[in-house]
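Notes on consecutive records. When two proteins share a document, each keeps its own sequence and its own token line. Never mix them. Below: protein one.
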Amino acid sequence: MTSTQPPHAGDVIYTARLIRTANPSQPTATAIAVRDGKVLSVGTLEDCQQWGITTIDRQFEDKVLTAGFVEAHSHIMTGMYSNIPYVGWFGRHMPDGSWVDGVKSTDELVQRLASIAATTEPGQPIVVSGFDPIYLDTERLSCHHLDEATTQHPVFVFHASGHLATVNSFILQKYSIEAGHPAPGVGFDKNGQPNGELREPAAMALARDEFRLIGQVVFSLETIGHFANAMRNAGITTAADLGNNFHAKDESLEEVLNATRIDSFHVRVASVPRIIGGPPAMHEFVEKVQEARTKTHDKMHIPVVKMVLDGSIQGFTAVVNWPGYFTGEDHGLFLLPPEQVVDYLRPFHQAGIGIHCHCNGSTTSGVFIDAIEVLLREHAWLDHRHTITHAQLITQAQMRKAKNLGMSANFFVNHMWFWGEQHRDITIGPDRAAAMNPCGTADRIGLQYAFHSDSPVTPANQLHTMWAAVNRATPHGDVVGPAERIDVNRAFHAATIDGAYQLHMDHLVGSLEVGKYADMTVLEQDPYEVDAMAIRDVQVWGTILGGVPSKSTAQR
């Protein structure tokens, strides 16, 4: 029987070799009908044609369509590599699709900085990003290394984690960062002299002009556009900018609103403001979020807020339980007073605004979970979905409690590839490394979870996060924590509908169901059919957003 509804202008049916929907009621299909940018029907071509649609687009008949990948923890900063040189260990695709080789030694970093300095006017800042000293066997990067590149420019090396920077002596002198400087996070050598390390935002902000330059680049229309390109190239159709400061800068919000309205902007953005300030200002913050929500549109949502409680494990600034770090110096640092967390979060919880909290360390996860327990005792909310983001060292006891409280976890499972060996051998030791980012245990306990790239910390690529969760392999072929591996079907759902759930957007995106946005990832191969070790090598053709295809520009 054919529907009595008349066809609409723009109605289209896409056919494919296979469609994976992330909808358990109908997990696969071969055709999908789109009307007004939404899913009208999913099934066979004959099923879809019953709506009276005659336009059939067969360009994807040899490809696999899936529910659009949802990246529930990334940053618009991803687009900054269009303007700020990348100096990370692993080579990666830039937002425009070009490839940049990694930096494999301190000497190579110094050479790159020297080449930049040769074409930069003296006194002008040199800012690069993505460096990570944990891979190097030599002494830790210091101001003295950077001085070898140039003494005529302020040099600011932003580390991959986003929690650390190293600066040269030019910057130390420019801002009078001297022996005995009182700011927390300033690094000193064995003689008590500043060594150029600035740990966490309070210390990095001492290099005022250079740190501000990163912020200026991040919230530009160009960077936001490059962010969209990077996500599209990875097959991501919904991406969270998890932790911005739009509430403090109205112009930042307007930049994102304007950029996302452009027809060629190929991703939906979940813009997530970061909680800053003190408890007395939180009610005003809530009002700002509620007001901003009235300005959003189909490609721009403000679903939750974010709190940051600690730093990074590889930077030794995450706060971890006994016995502390395996080797190296413990710089664990709470970024907010743990005894005030409940007061910070109470206004958001009471206003029905979901909370994602950055917790890399086990101590930090415990603080956040305990705070949510207090808030739920004070004010019941059965569908809060408060999420421990990163949750890398969360313990089994903490996971059970979080599950009982209705919480979620968003694991930074890419760490198993990018830093798994370093965590096992340097930061936390073999026992805790095997148990970190515990997808398998979360399934056994019943804790809802997704996983993420934290792009630009690691490249935006949900096929890679799926691969990391399925294999937990390291660059040298080791498997760290085999009991925490999951299968490809579970990984696919973590990369789609489960991320949408955590963002309170699962009624809009995350699966291909009637009434949701027609957002799809277009793949050359089926991740279910390839060898488990080849999942990350599946090629992304591009995406379909609201029924409109957009081809990747990534260079193969």
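Protein two starts on the next line and is unrelated to protein one.
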Amino acid sequence: MNSQTTQILIAMIVYMAIVIAIGVVFAKSANKNSENYFLGGRSLGPWVTAMSAEASDMSGWLLMGLPGVAYWCGLADAAWTAIGLAVGTYFNWLFVSKRLRRYSIRANNSITLPEFFSNRFHENKKVIMTLSALFILIFFTVYASSCFVTCGKLFSTLFGAPYVSMMLIGAVFVLLYTLLGGFLAESASDFMQGIVMIIALAVIVIISTISAGGIGTVVENAKSIPGFFEFFGLASPSLGADGQQLVEAGKPLFGAATEYGWLKVCSMLAWGLGYFGMPQVLLRFMAIRKEDELKRSRRIAMIWVVISLAVAVFIGIVGRQLYPTVHLTATDAENIFITLATSSLPAILAGFVMAGILAATISSSDSYLLIAASAFAKNIYQGVCNKKATDKQVMTISRITLLTIAVIAAVIALNEKSIIFKIVSFAWAGFGATFGPIMLFSLFWKRTTKEGAVAGMVSGAAMVFIWKLLISKLGGAFAIYELLPAFIFSSIVIIAVSLLTPPPAKEIEEDFEIVKSNTEL
């Protein structure tokens, strides 16, 4: 290990020590009861709510996946995805946050998403609770695997160590931290990690742009590649038999630009629909201490999101100018942020910037693991299997579930050639189509029935798999992002089934009207 690598490692160890210290500080409070462990006792302030919601949402995908897409095939895919996410973030905070915070209290003080859906419809047999908990387990296991892939790529690239070993070390660290501190520690560290992430992005894009000769030079280079710097075109790297991009006279080769029509634009914008069903974000709405603080949180969140997404996309564009032949596969392109950081900064500063990737990964994976564990322990074990379970038993089962999910996610992440962007896109579609429509209808349509809720969740989740694995293979118009058709299909099913089944009971409608009134509960 050379001097530069040693300094990077020291900086990252210092960062991880701070994260662990946060977990230790909050461990006592978190372990008082399950509400504190899973929802922080509804005590989050506006800054922590905003920053933890966005940091837990973006993950290492923001620092590796999104720049990798921009580096590999240009502006269009990355930019339209970023625009869709920014718009989705805004509407989620604007319309869903206040109503959900209020409704979750009215719905028997629900502290998990499955519990909210179950209490919202006053169900006795806990069908909605069980189904939603199972879907959370499935999709968050996939999501957690993307975070472990990020850890593996980060550490193996930095230290030249085997990918699998580095991925497993990262997974163990995340697991131990989540076991220690629960939701409060997770949210507090996410606040810090959100700051680290945006600073890391800003530092790298500024220094890299200067090194590349300025914005003008970067843009000129991007425009010289067919379809690379277009909103309605896409670059097509020329690949050899080994799957790597061809290089000639020190320059990467590209084929003719691919047309990027409005259907593809709508497909990428559909990423924004995912926010309405994203548990790690929705839980922050439920956990804020006061409803009237959500407006300030929304403003903070939007500033962070817009800056972070725009900078992440531009990092990929700059990277193509500075290091055009370093990353020759779509998988390896996701390391461009690491390349820029280690090449542009002194080792100790590069270490702290690398901590930005680690920050993003930890802030997401601990959220995913904790929510998935709570879904099983609180909603399936206590809600269905053992209704007399004590808080202590629930938390024990939660920790066992955490370990199990982490092991399965690590197995999924064993493939070194996994592309973070693709893993995240599938899990994102799963959550968006499964929970997004039913969340909106539950909050804003009084006529929604529990039968409609069940049908909507099942049809949305099923369509994600069917479209991704079968229909999209037909190509053409069918190759759109699976979230869009699945979201639409789920919404249609909810409306149809709700209208075909008896109206909700009077007490359910009364709850809806009370929440609809502008009175904080």
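For the record: The longest helix spans residues 163-211.
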